[in-house]
């Protein structure tokens, strides 16, 4: 874009020159213009000089403002998608649509966006009138189920620690609440989680509460839309973790819970045997058993 005049205040995309194969263009606002280069400020307020040759193009207005549904991005490229998500995340807007899909970014902090009042707000509302939210996905499924009487499916996927388990619980919380009549079946579905997590979750280097199994949850609704029951199928449990764990990781939570609850004498009898060590220090042997 060497020939086009670059103006102060313009938002541009610029090539990175580090040579890394995963490099993508960066977006920024021009804060200074010189003859052969411009200074830009990126979304983290970091300033850097970019040569005129590195400048790819002006940023589309949809990327400057940010969009709630990325179908509306003028520039539907990986770099524009990542910048949009990053920009929203910084404003604590962790949910963004891409058509009927919802992208969630793990906030790693408790945001005040899962209240009962919000559940009510998302019930039967047009998703376009409200901020993108996981409750809207729950509501969409629930409304489709009621209106079409056809089974619905929500697929939650992502890398370890992305927030799949938390998202599943939030959808269940929404469905339990939306289905109206509070019965103990709904309560049982929600309360089954801690037990399942005790047996199937463990601390890993990426997630203190990592699910080490896949889960298929089947929720049955009656004609009135009330929850009547549920079935949880588990698959691919990481069984090897029971006998060995990588450095910095743990066995399944249940073992620690059991030990924590045992009286001292019993704990000694069933607890992990201490490793025998033979340490030889200056001129004398010491044994740690
Ligand atoms: N919406 C959220 N709000 C606040 N914290 C969250 C949210 N989603 C996830 N977290 C935090 O991130 C941690 C990891 O999330 P989660 O266990 O759901 O990941 P996961 O995708 O299920 O990982 P794995 O595949 O390892 O089981 C949670 O324990 C929680 O602390």
Automatic annotation (TrEMBL):
UniProt-annotated binding residues for ATP: 158-165
InterPro entries the UniProt entry points to: Kinesin_motor_dom_sf, Myosin_head_motor_dom-like, Myosin_VII_N, P-loop_NTPase, Unconventional_Myosin_ATPase
Start and end residues of each Myosin motor domain: 65-289
A GO MF label: ATP binding
PANTHER family hit by this protein: MYOSIN (PTHR22692:SF33), MYOSIN VII, XV (PTHR22692)
Family membership: Belongs to the TRAFAC class myosin-kinesin ATPase superfamily. Myosin family.
Protein name: Myosin motor domain-containing protein
Origin species: Acanthoscelides obtectus (Bean weevil)
């Amino acid at each position: 874009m060497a020939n086009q005049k670059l103006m102060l205040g313009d938002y541009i995309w610029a090539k990175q020159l580090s040579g890394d194969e995963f490099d993508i263009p960066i977006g920024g606002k021009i804060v200074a213009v010189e003859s052969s280069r411009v200074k830009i400020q990126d979304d983290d307020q970091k300033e850097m000089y970019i040569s005129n040759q590195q400048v790819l193009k002006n940023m589309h207005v949809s990327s400057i403002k940010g969009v709630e549904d990325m179908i509306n991005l003028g520039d539907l490229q990986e770099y524009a998608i990542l910048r949009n998500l990053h920009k929203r995340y910084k404003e604590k807007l962790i949910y963004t649509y891409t058509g009927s899909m919802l992208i969630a970014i793990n906030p790693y902090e408790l945001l005040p966006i899962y209240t009962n009042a919000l559940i009510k707000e998302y019930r039967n509302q047009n998703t376009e009138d409200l901020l993108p939210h996981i409750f809207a996905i729950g509501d969409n499924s629930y409304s489709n189920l009621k209106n079409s009487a056809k089974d619905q499916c929500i697929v939650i996927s992502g890398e370890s620690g992305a927030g799949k388990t938390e998202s599943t619980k939030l959808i269940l919380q929404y469905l339990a609440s939306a289905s109206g009549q509070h019965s103990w079946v709904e309560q049982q579905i929600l309360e089954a989680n801690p037990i399942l997590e005790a047996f199937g979750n463990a601390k890993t280097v990426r997630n203190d509460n990592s699910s080490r199994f896949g889960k298929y949850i089947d929720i049955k609704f009656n004609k009135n839309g009330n929850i009547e029951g549920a079935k949880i199928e588990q698959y691919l449990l990481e069984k090897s973790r029971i006998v060995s764990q990588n450095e910095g990781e743990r066995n399944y939570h249940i073992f620690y819970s059991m030990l924590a609850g045992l009286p001292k004498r019993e704990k000694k009898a069933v607890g992990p045997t201490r490793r025998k060590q033979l340490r030889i220090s200056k001129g004398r042997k010491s044994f740690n058993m």
